Amino acid sequence: MQTRRRTTTAVHERGAPRRRLPSAAKHPAIRIPVERIVAERRWIAALVRAGGVSPRDREDVVQAVILAAWMGGGLP
C-alpha cells in the first residue's frame, strides 16, 4: 500500500527554530525613577480624559497608571 505525501505548504514544526526569550543576564531590567513618571502626569491625565473616564474617577485612574508604570518599569 502506498502512502500519500502531504500537500500542505505549512512549515513543519521541527523545521523552524524556536525563538528564545531574552535572558535577564543579557537584558537587565532598568528602574525608571518615579520622578520621571510623575513628570508626565499632565500627559497621562490628558490620555485618561481622552479615553472617556468619568471626571469622578480620573484622579484615581491617573494614580493607578503612575503606580503601574513605576512598578512595571523596565519590563520588556
Mean pLDDT: 79
Mind describing the biggest β-sheet?
none
* Number of β-strand runs: 0
Net shape: elongated
Secondary-structure element sequence? HHH
Terminal CA distance reads 53 Å
> What Rg, in angstroms, do the CA atoms define?
24 Å
Helix content: 25-40%
The quaternary state of the protein chains shown equals: single chain
Structural class: mainly alpha
What brief labels describe this structure?
mainly alpha, elongated
Write the layout of secondary structure elements.
Elements: H1 34-38, H2 41-50, H3 58-71
Would you summarize the structure shown here?
The chain has helices spanning 34-38, 41-50, 58-71. It is mostly helical and 76 residues long.
Characterise this structure.
The structure is a single chain. The protein has 3 helices and no strands. With 76 residues, the protein is mainly alpha-helical. The termini are far apart.
